[in-house]
Request: fold
Amino acid sequence: MAINERAKANHDELFPGHVSTLAITDPDLIEVFDDFAFDEVLQHGELDTRVRLITQLASMIATGSLAEFRAMLGAALTVGVTPVEAKEVVYQAVPYVGLARVFDFLHATNDVLTDRGIELPLPGQSTTTPETRFEKGLALQKRIVRDDRVDAMYAAAPADSAHFQRFLSDDCFGDYVTRDGIDLPTRELLTFSMLAALGDADPQVKGHVAANLRVGSDRAVLLAVLTRLLPFIGYPRTLNALAAIDEIAPAEADR
Reply:
């Protein structure tokens, strides 16, 4: 079957003038995939194109999909994602998937930006110092996770592992989530996308469904993001994340 006109137009918006080699070698697959990823899933819910692309980029870091990330980063820059936003997607991934995985994506991002004539380094986006990272990180953690939950985690931590709770406050939240360049609701969507794509992180997915609700995103937004991730992360991880959404933010009819 041929790629339908809506899918072709949506694909061409991201990759103007590009002819996929896989469309030549594997037309059966590409026709099915492009109709699904660039048309069918886009019909469910509303999501800004830029947010769609950066959440998809976040999921690709989590799955280790370097080649696809590089291609989609170019598409994201084409439709208006800024270099700072692109870098912040990569930086946001560090506390959630680890630098060992992020390292190659950082180099790929630098290569793509440099190839487009963008001078590095970009303006810094850090909002904390070594002296303030814990205080600011803890305050933001409590805003996102809830004061009582954070206090309970600290209170329940054994003495020999209490440092992990502090790391969450000063490193994860203080060093990364407090950064400028992307607003907090969008950062939480990035985190949800990474955790959904990682797999084997169901408690964290549930926690960040709740966090998204607290910073302003609702069930409809989360479903729109997850729907657009599906072609890239597959059904098992998508359905696990959907179960988390249904548990934490059930549909009105189920309440």
